[in-house]
Amino acid sequence: MGPSGLPLDLWLRVERTLGYLFNEAVYERANTAMSLGTHGALRRVVLGLVYGRVLDVGCGDGVYLTQLASRTEEVVCLDPLPARNHSALPNFHRVVAVAEYMPFRDKSFDFATAMFSFRDFMDKALGLFNMRRVSKRGVVILDLFSTSPYLRPAVTFYFGYIAPAMGFVASGGRRGRWELILPTLLLMPRADFFKRIGGVIIARRGLGLVSIVYLPVN
Ligand SMILES: C[S@@+](CC[C@H](N)C(=O)[O-])C[C@H]1O[C@@H](n2cnc3c(N)ncnc32)[C@H](O)[C@@H]1O
């Protein structure tokens, strides 16, 4: 997989920034602008795939959590940040923890999902190991992935300059540190990597830059 996660200093900066964006309630607005509206549709694909008991790893203050809880038996949202937005549904629970150290027994859930959070793990191998360990059926990852080397200059330009400018405007001028997306993206494997470990690519946009990967658990 290559480099397995964010170095501690980068992880701390990313978490501080995300906490700020959640508190200011501008994270989703900025994301919609930077992803040109595609992230919501891709999240809906993930919501349509899972059922039963679902662990959503790196849920943040996910706007989709009530929808996820309303269509499944139970949702546990795991995140190091104690975000403000919670679903009021009785089958929704929030656990403050990290993917690398999950306080759950083996096969406690039907599915484990990670939407735009796998990229931020401190240790992707350990986080993925735990997501598989606690799932009976499979793991679904929706995220930005590394692209072919030919596309890298365009991707670097977009996430280095265009996306931060769009995030700044969409958030009403908040200092969101959107330039931190780029170093997290540069540490990602390509979506195709997951095929080598038994995964299937369910959706692919922007020549694989944004993909949904499904890893069945045997
Ligand atoms: C970009 S946000 C995505 C939030 C939400 N899933 C969504 O789609 O809007 C990434 C989330 O991953 C969380 N995160 C970062 N490192 C993590 C880790 N090691 N384990 C679990 N979650 C982590 C962050 O706190 C943040 O809430």
UniProtKB/TrEMBL annotation:
Keywords assigned by UniProt, alphabetized: Methyltransferase, Transferase
Keyword Methyltransferase applies: yes
Top-level taxon of the source organism: Archaea
CDD domains with a match to the protein in the record: AdoMet_MTases
Domain Methyltransferase type: 55-140
GO molecular function: S-adenosylmethionine-dependent methyltransferase activity
Pfam families: Methyltransf_11 (PF08241)
Coiled coil: none
Gene3D superfamilies xrefs: Vaccinia Virus protein VP39
Classification via InterPro entries: Methyltransf_11 (IPR013216), SAM-dependent_MTases_sf (IPR029063)
GO biological process, one term: methylation
Protein name from the UniProt record: Methyltransferase domain-containing protein
Organism: Infirmifilum lucidum
